[in-house]
Amino acid sequence: xxPSPAGDxxPSPAGPVRDVVVVGGSIAALTAVExxxxxxxxxxxxxxxxxxxxxxxxVPLSKGVLAxxxxxxxxxxxxxxxxxxxxxxxxxxxxxxxxxTVLTPAGPVRYDGLVLASxxxxxxxxxxxxxxxxxxxxxxxxxxxxxxxxxxxxLVVGGGFLxxxxxxxxxxxxxxVTVVDLAPPLDRLLGTAVGGHVRTVAAQAxxxxxxxxxxxRLLGTPFPTAVETADGQRLEADLxxxxxxxxxxxxxxxxxxxxVAGGVLVDERCRVAPGIVAAGxxxxxxTGDGALTRIPSWTNAVEQARAAAKALLHGDDAPVYRPxxxxxxEQFGLDVKMVGPGDPQGExxxxxxxxxxxSALLAWPDxxxxxxxxxxxxxxxxxxxxxxxxxxxxxxxA
Length: 398
Ligand SMILES: Cc1cc2nc3c(=O)[nH]c(=O)nc-3n(C[C@H](O)[C@H](O)[C@H](O)COP(=O)(O)OP(=O)(O)OC[C@H]3O[C@@H](n4cnc5c(N)ncnc54)[C@H](O)[C@@H]3O)c2cc1C
Description:
Keywords: FAD, Flavoprotein, Oxidoreductase. With about 400 residues, this protein is α/β, with parallel strands linked by helices. The chain folds into three domains: about 20-120 and about 245-315, 3-Layer(bba) Sandwich (FAD/NAD(P)-binding domain); about 140-240, FAD/NAD(P)-binding domain (3-Layer(bba) Sandwich); about 335-395, no CATH class. It has eight helices and 26 strands. The protein is globular and about 60 Å long. Flavin-adenine dinucleotide binds near residues 117, 162 and 252.
């Protein structure tokens, strides 16, 4: 049986929410706090974050921070107002829903409204004795930058957006770069036409691609210095970085009774249980066909956190959450923006420009009812891209 959000979602019989605890220290947490205040919530807000830095954006970590152009000052987001209690280095370690209490090493924290925004961490494929290099936090970024300084060659395991951005930054720093993956990098996200275009540009910048059906094993301790592919190839590099996806931070919810299945399960208004909502990389929802969907992207974290905060305050009167499915990546001099679920099949319809000339606006499966739209070095702003898709799904003119 599929898990479902727990319990009756009508507003809590305990009355209006007065004391909100937000668990998480990044964009979903910050957006939830801002939205609560915009909705005129004047009760107490406590934010519990296990990080050293106040809420910051991860987006520049694989770009400006890794390249050495940006520092903590550039990534830290707008400060929370004085009326919010921000507790850094304070992990939530457990949740007692019966007593409405979040457990922390510093003691229990009571809530009557709770926002789960604990995000995700980097997935690892190495063994316990390997110090696998990943990129998720600001500290990871500083460490990786330091390792890059001393490396002539870099091997990136995983050619998704993150792996390819790391490869791109390593290229600009003059490194010899290899990307290894199970399938042609970016095809699954952007379709074969755009994926192929980005790989061509990357190859022209010097990136070597290795495909291996069956994955790789990291070799060497403490730091991996080689990988072995399933077909027995050995690839060596001074620096090996894993960019193989993320894992939602849900372990602290063990025993709480909340529904967890590859993330915290939310309903169509981002509610998990009475008085509890979730947003961002930690949240997973069911689609019409019952499949579980998680959308780990910046825009989703922002949009979902807004919806979750409203649902916490207004219950069934809050709007149903409809993700815009907008995301983007910057790599190899290409600015790629997309709306839609990704994995577009077949040849796109060209709405403007062409990949050959370097600037293109493309739609799948066709121009009249696009399900995915991708802009490559094309000036269409994100809001217009979102409208193109909304027009197709609602039939409303943009
Ligand atoms: C290097 C990098 C580059 C990216 N670039 C892009 C991009 O270009 N475009 C894009 O759309 N997306 C990008 N993303 C994805 C985007 O950053 C994430 O989707 C977004 O950060 C999700 O926000 P979140 O607040 O849900 O989760 P997170 O950012 O994961 O934040 C969760 C926070 O909760 C804290 N936390 C976890 N557990 C606990 C606990 N038990 N108690 C207290 N605190 C806890 C964590 O330390 C963290 O501060 C990038 C991600 C990375 C790593």
